[in-house]
């Protein structure tokens, strides 16, 4: 299987992706916990059906020491007891923001309030930015049908 378009070799797509990566580096250095960042990236990627990003971020999370139990339960986080209340709020915000077109009013105030209860302004800024960014990455990869399964942790570092 190969991608419809080599976004890494295409001058325009590659130049745009460099800006996505730079934005990701800013978020990675933010005060939003690294584990939360990976959980958010995994959940949005699952919802969007992005195999490439799901593969990448589960492998990055594993390399960073995340447990297999938690990774295996990301899709079922509502029923899982292995996530903190803060992580659950971030995952809920991720779901609502990723599925924004499914709700007439956008992200409900209650969902925002639960996230704001656990994260300060800087962390919320990082969380919102991260959710937007991973959704952009997911969409690009799904559009071009980027193959999944061969990612190696640190490959794009």
Question: What would you note in describing this structure?
Answer:
- This protein is mainly α and 157 residues long.
- Helix content is 63%, strand content 0%.
- It contains seven helices and no strands.
- It is globular.
Biggest beta sheet summary: none
Global outline = globular
Distance between the termini: 25 Å
Radius of gyration: 15 Å
Mean pLDDT score, rounded?
A: 96
Total strands: the figure is: 0
Low-confidence region ranges:
none
- The H-and-E topology, N to C, reads as HHHHHHH
Number of helices: 7
Structural class: mainly alpha
Q: Give the strand content.
A: under 5%
Helix content: 55-70%
List keywords for this structure.
157 residues; mainly alpha
